[in-house]
């Protein structure tokens, strides 16, 4: 169930709710020249709308969305998290196109990761469905970093330090070091880990999660069985401590064939190796990664199918570059220089399947 306790407790001076249709529209008002900027966020959770209706003593039917009037304050986001979560210390560790990432230390010494997503850039319903799926997955597989509830909720709405609506997601902190794609043993371990995660993902059937982005952009000719995939499996989303590997960042999880995710993991190493002129690194990684996956899965990987999906992944990137408004947020909002790097990669790519 998805609730917005932060907004509900803001008080009448800072919170007013009326019902609308087809979008959650949040208006930010500040003592600045530019004020009252509307931000629309998809939201169709019936529990949320009914709870808000009760708070307003309003009776309505067929409520798809809610309209908020939001009175924002200039507050540092780290300070917001300290107060909101009750952490003893907080440090920002990354800022991306879609999320800001913080490491939190609780008073009992527990370490958490907090992600703050710009609510205007995501589909709230999909975010909630994905977090629910990861929570279920963590019950099945101890390698998965478990989402952590704050005030009983896996997803909370807060105001960021610019006064904009944001989604707060917390999870376990993954101890250890990132795996090295240049190391054959690490590449093999990555393959083994992905095969194991795929087995666990196949056991859950969440609702409301779409196909992975590339498969929505370019249709595949391969009619393989679909299941939930990690969506962004790479060395940066893994940590190794002794012999244990933890997996995190399932924010892009979606449906697709296992072979696509194998290909996507290879594609990301191929991309970095190509733009860094280290193509031999990719060849070493490919063999070890596929060997590790096949050993854990109990059967050899169909390399022809994997090659097909690597080609598809590059075609998806090409299509997004031709029509940036349809691209994932990380590509859509990248700098012109990075767009040129992506185009250079696409232009130099040689199809693997002929």
- Cα(first) to Cα(last) distance is 48 Å
Q: Overall mean pLDDT score?
A: 80
Q: How many strand elements?
A: 14
Report the portion of residues in β strands. Answer: 15-25%
Task: Name the structural class.
Answer: alpha+beta
Helix content: 25-40%
What's the gyration radius in Å? 22 Å
Number of helices: 11
Pattern of helices and strands? HEEEHEHEEEHEEEHHEEEEHHHHH
> Outline, from the CA principal axes?
globular
Unreliably modeled segments? 1-75
Largest sheet: 6 strands, antiparallel
Indicate the topology.
Blueprint (H helix, E strand, L loop, with lengths): L4 H4 L6 E6 L3 E6 L7 E5 L4 H11 L8 E7 L5 H9 L1 E9 L3 E8 L4 E8 L5 H17 L6 E2 L7 E4 L5 E8 L11 H18 L11 H5 L9 E3 L8 E4 L2 E4 L6 E3 L1 H18 L3 H19 L5 H20 L6 H4 L3 H13 L6
Parallel strand pairs: 2-4
Antiparallel strand pairs: 1-4, 2-3, 5-6, 6-7, 7-10, 8-10, 9-10, 11-14, 12-13
Keywords:
354 residues; four-stranded mixed sheet; alpha+beta; 14 strands; disordered N terminus; 11 helices; single chain; six-stranded antiparallel sheet
Protein architecture, described:
With 354 residues, this protein is an alpha+beta fold. 39% of the residues lie in helices and 22% in strands. The protein is built from eleven helices and 14 strands. A hairpin with a 3-residue loop joins strand 5 and strand 6. Helix 5 packs across helix 8 and helix 9 packs across helix 11. The longest helix has 20 residues. The protein is globular and about 55 Å long.
